[in-house]
Amino acid sequence: MNFLNTVKAFAANESGAVTVDWVVLTAAIVGLGLAVVTSVSSGVGTLGSSISTALGGITVNAPETVGFTQ
Q1: Residue 8 pLDDT > 90, yes or no?
Q2: Which chain regions cross the lipid bilayer (predicted)?
Q3: How confident is the model over 15-61, as pLDDT tens digits?
Q4: Which long-range contacts (CB under 8 A, 24 or more apart) does 1-6 make?
Q5: Is the dihedral of CA 62, 64, 67, 70 positive or negative?
Q6: What per-residue string of b and e applies to 18-55 under the rule 16 or more CB within 10 Å gives b?
Q7: Rg of the chain's alpha carbons, rounded to an integer?
Q8: According to the model, what pLDDT value does residue 50 have?
């Protein structure tokens, strides 16, 4: 087999094409995941701060103040 036949066989071989497809698909999924995390993170942080503020202002009565004894 000469060099030209080897090059032709290499060019005709498509066994790596599926791997390239999977790499592109995986990169797209990772990119989409990062975009979702970036867009949601600020809203989640704001919501967490709001919940923290709301819960921080709540007073819980001790058992002895509501008529219970241990």
Answers
A1: no
A2: 20-40
A3: 777 788 889 999 999 999 999 999 998 889 889 999 999 998 888 77
A4: none
A5: positive
A6: eeeeeeeeeeeeeeeeeeeeeeeeeeeeeeeeeeeeee
A7: 31
A8: 92
What is the per-residue pLDDT for 12? 81
Q: Find how far residue 43's CA is from the centre of its chain.
A: 15
Element spanning 55, H or E: helix 17-56
Residue matched to tokens 């698909």:
25
The pLDDT value given to residue 13 = 78
So where are the chain's domains?
3-57
